[in-house]
Amino acid sequence: MAVPARTCGASRPGPARTARPWPGCGPHPGPGTRRPTSGPPRPLWLLLPLLPLLAAPGASAYSFPQQHTMQHWARRLEQEVDGVMRIFGGVQQLREIYKDNRNLFEVQENEPQKLVEKVAGDIESLLDRKVQALKRLADAAENFQKAHRWQDNIKEEDIVYYDAKADAELDDPESEDVERGSKASTLRLDFIEDPNFKNKVNYSYAAVQIPTDIYKGSTVILNELNWTEALENVFMENRRQDPTLLWQVFGSATGVTRYYPATPWRAPKKIDLYDVRRRPWYIQGASSPKDMVIIVDVSGSVSGLTLKLMKTSVCEMLDTLSDDDYVNVASFNEKAQPVSCFTHLVQANVRNKKVFKEAVQGMVAKGTTGYKAGFEYAFDQLQNSNITRANCNKMIMMFTDGGEDRVQDVFEKYNWPNRTVRVFTFSVGQHNYDVTPLQWMACANKGYYFEIPSIGAIRINTQEYLDVLGRPMVLAGKEAKQVQWTNVYEDALGLGLVVTGTLPVFNLTQDGPGEKKNQLILGVMGIDVALNDIKRLTPNYTLGANGYVFAIDLNGYVLLHPNLKPQTTNFREPVTLDFLDAELEDENKEEIRRSMIDGNKGHKQIRTLVKSLDERYIDEVTRNYTWVPIRSTNYSLGLVLPPYSTFYLQANLSDQILQVKYFEFLLPSSFESEGHVFIAPREYCKDLNASDNNTEFLKNFIELMEKVTPDSKQCNNFLLHNLILDTGITQQLVERVWRDQDLNTYSLLAVFAATDGGITRVFPNKAAEDWTENPEPFNASFYRRSLDNHGYVFKPPHQDALLRPLELENDTVGILVSTAVELSLGRRTLRPAVVGVKLDLEAWAEKFKVLASNRTHQDQPQKQCGPNSHCEMDCEVNNEDLLCVLIDDGGFLVLSNQNHQWDQVGRFFSEVDANLMLALYNNSFYTRKESYDYQAACAPQPPGNLGAAPRGVFVPTVADFLNLAWWTSAAAWSLFQQLLYGLIYHSWFQADPAEAEGSPETRESSCVMKQTQYYFGSVNASYNAIIDCGNCSRLFHAQRLTNTNLLFVVAEKPLCSQCEAGRLLQKETHCPADGPEQCELVQRPRYRRGPHICFDYNATEDTSDCGRGASFPPSLGVLVSLQLLLLLGLPPRPQPQVLVHASRRL
Fold it and tell me: Dihedrals φ, ψ of 1112, to 5°?
């Protein structure tokens, strides 16, 4: 009598499974269990003595298939796939077609060193033309300002200019400029659409943008508008000399922006917070790199509103720093401590600044003021030489509500007599404290004293320190007049991603005869270069689908890279994607990155991992890296080539009759007999209208070709000739192979070929209706993976676990199988095409069951296990007890013998059978690769504050209102200040800056996503193993299929669900902490170099201008008047402030 199997659940109908005693119990290995590092798992033959096969007379029994049986099934599967691909793929036939047409093309070679040097030279020439225009502008600006005579009595009506925000303000009936009637001096212009600017422009004028919080009618601003008007002629002359110039911009230190050509400002839906002095390019051009320590007084004297002002001020201060700067933030009372996890200076990149901003919000006021503790902490931070830092300007920024201690002993110990560290002090809030000690600290340490009495003063006063840092640059004269190129950032006027060349503009005037030279920076001149213009200088289609050019800066951030694709952009911040985050990091790439940053040349062939275009797969590939510096810039250029892209084809269709013949195969009238043709949407000709619809694009292409020839000067002859050649070559494949074959015999939905020339031919024509692959082969995942992998690459339809299962109707669901065509011509080898078939999912699922069974073909009857006999289970007869699947190298289900799993094809196998997928991973069939996507977009998080009042605002109690003393206190004055300024600036306390600048409430924001991909591990053998699962153990067999990316797995179906706890995840997940822990990352910073120039000291610097201000005690009469106005509902409109140094008066 058969021994019953140990089960935990209801018995399963069907043939009885052979009983086996449980060989051992133990905890199931979970996802975190360390996998064996050497040696295969326990093979089944060691377990066979423990698995007696006992059967009673007259009964039939099934056992788990033996290893040689399953190897036999695997060979049948391999042979079937190979046979179909040999017949229908047409690899060999396509090789012969290429050789037969050998006279129609030439084989060209990509010489990496020559290529990369040529491209670097072209980029250098492009940027050099912009540099010459920059120098003309900067010299002219300095001369115009020097010749300008200051006018004390200048009026708004005396100045005529185009106000870029005028149209938007005229549309706003509540605009203060409309109420003041100041538009009399504003020009009204006509604009024409210019595709180069992606905007409407006027080439006869420049435009002026003035920040919202600056009064346009002030004397300083009107004088600035007066002298900068002369720049318009220089702008126009520059464009005459170089018509490719894009935005030419002068950003003034007063906040005025004059840019050419004129275009209306992109007015946001909410308050416009744009200020040129906070743009990445201005900050980089206005001063040398900075090491900054911000210390914040959090003693008990800091009231609620004052502390809020401090928090906002620190956040605004952080926004004045760039990636060339280093910073730390600390709070102090009796003791000083960092506000975040950062214990030393860290790079002021976007992610580190975000950590600071979040940490600052947690500051709490308590204790007594201890300036000494704060300054000693700051000086210790700046003296730490064991960390990476800017090593240029050193400064301490102290925010406080006031105090009497001057801490002279601290300055004597750390900073005197050389005064290498500048000290900037900020008196925050309304109070009656004596500010003389704060002024003295700044003046005694080459810094500046500022007052921030209310919200409206924050933005101005947290950026004015740049004027002080600019003094050594101005005094250095021509030595400091060096063009710097920025990181990549989003253009505020719609150009997209750009880099900007910057050049500081100095004040050359003197205060009087024989007086010292003026040491103020006037502003920064900038000229934009669109990334697309730089990309046009790089070879696109001669490098093949997997070859590319990239460039990085001194921070290791990419300027060019095919993976530079930010999903969202915030024009307040640069786009900073590190080279090691753009690719999958390894030691070789770290070495390449360091060499490029150091400005060296180099070449290196490496084995590395690459992520597929759809980010579902990982391939181990060989790549050749070649790199050179781009002279006169901070950039370095690299070229990446796979070995098979060393050579490429260049068509030579001089025979016009042949051109016409091949071109006819692009006409839709030929599709029924020759198969449907998709053409890559490339820039074949200047007048070709682009379209996302390939049918429409093909129509536009055909219409244009009826007017011009492939040899036309307005067309890219290389692209056109290769396209037409590949049209003819793929048509010959139809003629020789596909047309005479019956696809239904082998259950194929389609056959296809795609080429480097941009042709994708799908046969028969009706199959094109369900073709979802990218018409650009270079952007098609199947194409690029086929080139990188030998053999046949299976690609199941993409499925997300959250989406509904596939709908298996009308046999439209298919599985792509593709392979590269390798062509050897003499000693030159290349891969110019990929061919493949599309399998009918349902039909091949049935065929799969037959091939993994004891039947030799589909028409043969199923073999039944007779009485008194013992049989092995197979994937067809015993599909209720035996699970048989094909899984691809990414862990996605391709085929199954379980009918109910057919609609799950394309899903990560852990979502189908978590228990089995975990076992495959733990037994090294799969390896996991985790990485982070720093360019992702996420839905906005719900706000944490659900109350109606602004967050963090001080709210007085009833007792306060009844107390007369309270009405004359600083708290009352600050409250009224907030109410007044809040009419305009309330978004600073309530909203994210990007939101305030007009982003919709539902706009996605940038975030970091964790990606996990799986790929084949080191196991390449065939063996059986057991899944330990208490009373529910499972046997499984796994074997790689030769010449494919498939894993054949046979396993017992689970009898119970006790082992479902462990589940591997492949789906991209959001990282709440913005990726890897920043506190850990800053302990191992990546290699970088700062700008090679530093201007932080000049012996002739005059430090006497160090800030003058007095506390502003509130007047009881003013307070009462304000209160009455508020009660009457007539709040006075606060006049925007113009806070500039006295020396700005020229």
Answer: -115, 85
Tokens of 495: 């150009």
- Percent of the chain residues past pLDDT 90, beyond the cut: 63
CB distance 337 to 298 below 8 Å:
no
Q: At a CB cut-off of 8 Å and minimum separation 6, what does 327 contact?
A: 290, 291, 292, 293, 294, 318, 321, 345, 346, 348, 352, 353, 356
Measured between alpha carbons, how far is 599 from 601 in angstroms, rounded to an integer?
7
Q: Who's near 386: CB < 8 A, 6+ residues apart?
A: none
How many angstroms separate the CA atoms of 45 and 40, rounded?
Answer: 13
Cα distance between residue 19 and residue 61, in whole Å: 9
CB of 622 within 8 A of CB of 1020? no
d(CA 499, CA 574): 10
Give yes or no for residue 526 having a pLDDT over 90.
yes
- State the amino acid at position 595 in one-letter form: S
DSSP three-state, residue 753: strand
What's the rounded Cα separation, in Å, for the pair 443 and 426? 13
Buried b (16+ CB within 10 A) or exposed e, 825-834: eeeeebbbbb
Nearest Cα to 276, choosing from 427, 3, 502, 67? Answer: 502
* Rg, the chain, Cα only: 36
Q: How confident is the model at residue 49 (pLDDT cuts 50, 70, 90)?
A: very low
Q: Residue 868 region, left (φ>0) first, then alpha (ψ -120 to 50), else beta?
A: left
Residues 715-766 pLDDT 10s? 999 999 999 999 999 999 999 999 988 999 999 999 999 999 999 999 999 9
Closest CA to 310 of 271, 263, 364, 239: 364
Show contacts of 946-952: CB within 8 Å, 24+ apart: 950/982, 950/986, 950/989, 950/990, 951/989, 951/990, 952/304, 952/308, 952/311, 952/989
Amino acid letter, residue 187: L
Q: Which amino acid is at 456?
A: G
How far apart CA 166 and CA 1139 sit, in angstroms, is 23
Residue at 994: amino acid letter: A
Contacts of 932 (CB under 8 A, 6+ apart): 581, 1008, 1009, 1010, 1011, 1071, 1075, 1076
Judged by average pLDDT, the poorest of 256-265, 491-500, 520-529, 561-570 is 561-570
Looking only at the bridges linking them, the beta strands covering 1069-1070 and 290-297 are unpaired
Contact 612, 618 (CB under 8 A): yes
User: Residue 270: exposed, middle, or buried by beta-carbon count in 10 A (0-12, 13-18, 19+)?
Assistant: middle
Q: What is the total residue count of the chain? A: 1146
How far apart, in Å, do the first and last CA atoms of the chain sit?
A: 109
Show the tokens assigned to 92.
Answer: 């060999």
pLDDT digits (tens, 9 = 90+) for 79-134: 999 999 999 999 999 999 999 999 999 999 999 999 999 999 999 999 999 999 99
Compute the CA torsion angle 583, 588, 592, 594 (nearest 10 deg): 100
Query: Is pTM beyond 0.90 here?
Result: no
Give pLDDT tens digits for 403-433.
889 999 999 999 999 999 999 999 999 888 8
Type of residue found at 93: Q
Distance CA 719, CA 755 (A): 12
Check residue 734 and report its DSSP letter.
I
Read out DSSP for 868-901?
T-EEE--TTTTTTTEEEEEEETTSBEEEES-GGG
Check if the beta carbon of residue 1017 is closer than 8 Å to that of residue 925.
yes
- List pLDDT tens digits, range 169-227: 555 545 544 444 454 478 899 999 999 998 999 999 999 999 988 889 999 999 999 99
Q: Between 619 and 940, whose confidence is greater?
A: 619
Q: What are phi and psi of 979, to 5 degrees?
A: -60, -40
